Amino acid sequence: MNLNPTLFLLTVILLLVSCSTPRFVTNDEEYPKIGLDLVADAIVIEDRRENVSISDDLELPFISHRGQYDIVVPPLKSDHEEIIKQTILDNLDSESTLQAFLTVQVLNARKEFSATYWSERETSMVELKIVAKVGEKEIVVLESGEYIKKSIDATYKRSERIFKNALKEVTYKALKKLEHKICS
Description:
The chain has helices at about 5-20, 80-90, 155-184; strands at about 40-45, 70, 100-115, 120-135, 135-150. It is α+β, with helices and mostly antiparallel strands and about 180 residues long.
């Protein structure tokens, strides 16, 4: 069997490109903690999204074809809220004297699936607003992020993992913005 070297190289490149992974700062156990100069009196999570789906799973086809698309706005489950709260707690300075009441508003959080000729794409988009009440002062930050994973075959497990990582990553980035506002 004689393979065309150009065709072989093109196939290898397409496979490598189609298996890209989103980069999450918070993906590792030992990601850089912020040490935000706050102690949380309370952390409240408010889901401000409309049109929340009944199911949290995308409709993934057995065999996809170009143009297939699905979007789901999954309900916030207790483990999703726990990811947000734990990310906040992990990045606060427990020895701080500044006490804050933190409200996290989930403005947008969704999962998407799309297919092309060459790959399937799983996307998670998250938009959060954090309101920190420190004494009489109210500090508001907005942060959003979109994370995409291209592969040959999308899975429910991977789309949920990307969604959870997106929640954590956007919360972390919002805390970084909060840190800059508190310091300035």
